[in-house]
Specification:
Beta-lactamase; acetylation; Beta-lactam/transpept-like; binds glutamine; 327 residues; alpha+beta; two-stranded antiparallel sheet; Glutaminase; glutaminase activity; 15 helices
Amino acid sequence: MNNIQNESIEFISIQEQLDQFVLDAKKNTTSGATASYIPALKKANPEHLGICLISSQGTFLKSGDTDHCFTLQSISKVFSFIFACHTRGIDEVLQYVDVEPTGDAFNSIFRLELSHPGRPFNPMINAGAITVASLLPGHSPLDKVEALLSFFEKMIGRKPSINMDVFHSEWQTANRNRALAYWLKETGFLLGGVEDAMEVYLKLCSIEVNIVELAQMGLILAHDGLHPYTNEQIFSMEIASLAKTLMLTCGMYDYSGRFAAFVGIPAKSGVSGGIMAAIPPSARVTNNRFACWGVGLYGPAIDKHGNSTAGVALLKRLSQEWDLRLI
Ligand SMILES: NC(=O)CC[C@H](N)C(=O)O
């Protein structure tokens, strides 16, 4: 009897398994709520959960609520950092922002005064990302945002748009982010004006994508900056590896340590409920140990750390069942 059950389990396709994992993880949407401190994000449906996985060898899986567009929010921090390193060089960027995890909330301000001489701890928290936004190439906020949008175009095949509703909503309520930016200006870790840096930072947070595009971006990271389909090296392997290390150590806010311990893959979340992950080559999923995977996920009910409740549960399950851990 046991044998028969085991055999039938093996015949369940990875698509069917994924559908079941999504169905189970959806139960976790009730333990979170949509981000209320950004009024435009509050309107999202907290019951949604959708995921897309794309492999470097062409496997494509989608499950759940897959048709929604959502803003990148903090996921944009990965790409503004990558683009700053790509255009200025890693060494110069690291003079302005460190690579140490804080264990603090993403918008925390208190370490800025504690750390001498005021360099933000890492580019995955708001302070570090505001510094990075000020380092992007271009004379005006518009130039800087356009430059990054063109960089996205190379990865996903279209220039994404900015959700101006979300941007205005944040622009009007960004008192804490402005406080961070003024502090950074005071200590010399912000180039140009505070309002210009805020405009760039908040517009990047408001870039709108869907889960397929998010998975494509995760895949390029997993594939060390080389686009597996166009064969273009979008950014260097060294930058990809630094960005993935930062995702693993700081990508899930003050839950990053636990996420690394129990899920074990580089990932970055945003308060919109999006999560992008980059999975290294893994034999279990398709019996092809050379395939790496990009994951795009959207589940707008978030927990107190700012991570999608159902999204974290789903990635935990996927990592355990398909043995995706790095270590
Ligand atoms: N954690 C996030 O996704 C935060 C991004 C958001 N735009 C903010 O600055 O607060």
